[in-house]
Amino acid sequence: MFEITSIILAAGEGKRMKSALPKVLHPVCGRPAIDYSVQLAQKLGSKKILTVVSKLKSDLVLQHLKNFKDLKIVFQSSPMGTGHAVQSCVTSLNGSKGYVLILYGDVPLIQEKTLKQFLNLVSLEKATLGLITTVTQEPQGYGRIVRDSSAKVLRIVEEKEASQTEKQIQEINTGIYAVKTDWLLQTLKKLKPHPVSGEYYLTDIVEAAIQNREPMVSMTCNGLGEFLGINTRKQLSEAIELMKDRLIEKWMTEGVTFIDPRHVYIDSDVTIGQECVIHPQVYLQGKTEIGKNCVIECGAVLKDMVVGDNVHIKPYCVLEESIIESEAQIGPFARLRPGSQVGKKARVGNFVELKKTKLGAGAKANHLSYLGDADIGAETNVGCGTITCNYDGVKKHPTKIGKKVFVGSDVQFVAPVKVGDGAYIGAGSTITEDVPSGALAIARQRQVNKKGWAKKKNSKS
Known about the structure:
Spore Coat Polysaccharide Biosynthesis Protein SpsA, Chain A; 2 domains; eleven-stranded parallel beta sheet; nine-stranded parallel beta sheet; 10 helices; 41 strands
């Protein structure tokens, strides 16, 4: 395969998005749209990756692109069309060999296998220029591919300049090209602005190749799906839906069951083990990793979670940036805040919230508790209504509870405090001092019953 330099055009203003966020940064299944193009260029082994951004309103894009190594930013001085955007790369292309692959930061759905097939075709045909076209029943808004009687490409006509007959053509230009670098550099120098719009059209390189009888090849794909550009909120929603369907199909192929695939929402970086069962209205976000044989029930939201094998997550749990070890049970209606860890075979029940808390193997917190900044040992039972009072109004403080501790209902641990292994905490206690191993701690006033009190009170009223 020849050397590849990839150019990613990302200078569009995105006015139709009506957003302060540049359109290439709008997320598609958990990643900004432009990430897909950059990662695709990397997977194809690009020698250089040039990303063209506008000098206007580019701060957010530049800040984001710093996350990628070996990426060169090229500025387009003013919005003068796709041809002008590629012209902006001329200096950066000096010394490059092979071919230039032109991609777009707002076209996230194109797949690696499609581009590999395209580049192989260009190589096989030894073409100076290759382009990808597609056939769609809704060609509105796209340039039409005009061919002669032998099916050779004659020209690309923009919709606003197309005749009524040409507008009926359903084969459209995707805008994706592979062009010999030396020929592209020569041709870019000759591009002229459109007499009406004043813009430089990249499609003019196709006309130049035809006029000069350069070897040219086109690859036609069926359907607009992979080549959908995001210019409106509607197109963004369509891209998200298509990407989601692709991801779910991928994981079903890997042995995951989705009870209702239409109503599961999954990000691109999520991984799921075999034999998992995912119920409707589940949100799997960020870089969540799910082990094998897990059940995730209706309404659960997982973000950047690590989940072991054979875990059961019951309905309506909200789980973030935490670890759940194998065979644990979570919920229903549980919340794990960032930095928590639930040990093997441990149980976190309904309306229990953990924050920066480690719950040891086999430990249980089954009902209505808040456990923050706590380290709770294996096989400890945390009773209903337990609270770790971890905040004194200025600082957070830890609570450490040992192994096989029994905590009665409605207990408050006023941190910092430690409880030794095997201790018992009486129900209703407010623990302000450390509890030794094996001790029984009771911190409440003795009950007093005043006989006849109610009768005396009522007689005075």
